[in-house]
Amino acid sequence: MVDIGQDGELNVCEDLLNSKLKMFKEDVLEGTNRELAGTSLAEYIVSIACSSASILCLVLTLMTYVLFSELRTEAGLNNMFLSSSLLLAQVSLMITSHIFRSSTMCTVLGVVTHFMWLWMFSWSFLCSYHMFQVFTSSTRRTSSLQDLFMAWKKILFSLICPSAIILTTVVGSYLASAGKEIGYGRFSCYLNSTLLVGLTVAGPLSLVTIINVVFFTKAVHKIHSVRKLQSIIKKEEQNIEWHIYVKLSSVTGAFWTVAIVAAALNNNILQ
């Protein structure tokens, strides 16, 4: 089934090669299962509990925006899309984390999970950009038609950016593997390699986080400059100001820096 021809080329039976590849995939999946089985029960319970609590809070947030129309301003719609994308990303991640066998469905879930997280990163950027505009721009849109046009521009932007990254991942992986894979679902229901995770998840996340922190810094500087023009700032008002800063930092996604550090150091506590 394996021999060397007269021209010096190695000839391998296709059935043998396919069977060995199948055995290799099964060994990798078994290793992944053993690794997951070795994860402490307490860590697993805490992870599920925190994810469930986050999903519940996101659902309640969306219900609030749906029930009260006065909240559905431009900023409110941004928050609705951000909450929706984060909700879908967490749900898809919870589903894929409990599927270990490679299949077409696994590959599809991997693509969907990747898209949802990238979609959430896009809306995090858009929320930060809107915050930056509100506090630094000297002009305001007055036409409802302008608001509608801007809303559609944001939606298209939030969809095009993740789609472009995923398309690049699929095409690049397909060409690099000579048509054998598309970058998803080979060993798990996600990206096939750490390199792909770094380039298509950690890379965009780092870029968005840096830009958002810059937006946040400039917005805070603008707020502080305006407040300094006032004659007296009471202590209570200063506390309110700091609360505003904390809320703005959560919108910008500045806390994603912790996730980046955790991934780089492979620190389970930070994760």
From TrEMBL:
InterPro entries: GPCR_2-like_7TM, GPCR_2_secretin-like, GPCR_LN-TM7. Coiled coil: none annotated. One of its GO terms (molecular function) is G protein-coupled receptor activity. It is a multi-pass membrane protein. The keyword Transmembrane applies. GO terms for biological process: cell surface receptor signaling pathway. Residues 43-271 form the G-protein coupled receptors family 2 profile domain. Keywords: Membrane, Transmembrane, Transmembrane helix. It comes from the Eukaryota. The keyword Cell inner membrane does not apply. It is found in: Membrane. Pfam families: 7tm_2. Its main location: membrane. The chain crosses the membrane at residues 44-68, 80-100, 115-135, 155-176, 196-221, 242-265. GO terms for cellular component: membrane. PANTHER family: LATROPHILIN RECEPTOR-LIKE PROTEIN A. This is G-protein coupled receptors family 2 profile 2 domain-containing protein. The gene is 106050322.
